[in-house]
Amino acid sequence: MRYILIGENPIEDQRIYEALAMRQIVCDVIPCGTIQDINRHLSNAIPTILIINEPTSPQKFYRSIVKSIRDTGHLCGIVVLGRQASFRDPIDYLDAGADSYVPLPVEPEVLDRVIKTVVRRTSAHERPCDVITLCGGVFFDQTKGRIQIQDTDILLTASEFKVLKTLIEANGKIVSTNSLKEGVYQDLMRAEKHQPSNCIQVFVNRIRDKLGLLDKSAVIETVRSEGYRWVQGHYNTDRLIPVGTTCINQNINLPPVAHVPQ
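RESULT FIELD:
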C-alpha cells in the first residue's frame, strides 16, 4: 500500500508525516500542485491512500481535486483532514468522492484508525500481493521482477530477485549467507564449489544500489558473521537519491563482477 500526503503547510505536513511514521504508515509528501500533477502520482496498479491536509482557509480547489480523481477512475482511498468552516464541508467532500473526512485537530491514534478503515474498504480493489511497498514511493513487483521508484522501472536479475524476495519473506529475521546461496543456486554444495564466496554480498550491494538509498543499511542490514536482514518501517523517502541521478535508472554503472553469474 502506498500513502501520499498532500498539503500546503510544510510544518504541519511534517508533523502529520512523523505521527503516521510512528505507526508504520510511511507517506510520500508532495506539495499541492495542479490536478494534473496530482493525477500523475496515482496509479490503479499500486493500491494508494491519498491524505489531503486542507489549508487553513478551505478552498473549493481541494474538493475539485477529489472530484477529478474520481472522474478519472482512480480507485485510491481518499482521507481529507479538514478545517470544517461549516457543516457543509464534510458533506461536500464526501459527495465529491472522499472516503472519509476528519476534522482537525485530530489525535494521531484516531487518524491511524481512520486510515486503516479506509484501507479495508479499498482492499477489494487491490491486486493480489504482487506489488510490495518497500518504502514511500518504492515498490517491488514480484511478477515482473523489478523495482519501481517514482514511476521509474528498475529491472532485477534473477539472482537479485531471489535474494530480495527471500529477505522480504523472512519478515525481519536474519537470513544466513548459506541460506541465500541455497535459495539462489538451489544447491549449496554446487554454489560453494563453483561460485565466489562473496557472491551474495555482490547481489545485496547491487540491490542496494538499484534502490538508490543514501543509507545502504536502510533496507538490507548486514549482520556480521550471521547474514542479512530485511529492515522494514525504519526508513523514509528522505534517504532516497533523487530521481535523475545515475543510481536509479536503468543505465546503472555498477562495478563489473564478471565472475558472478546473473
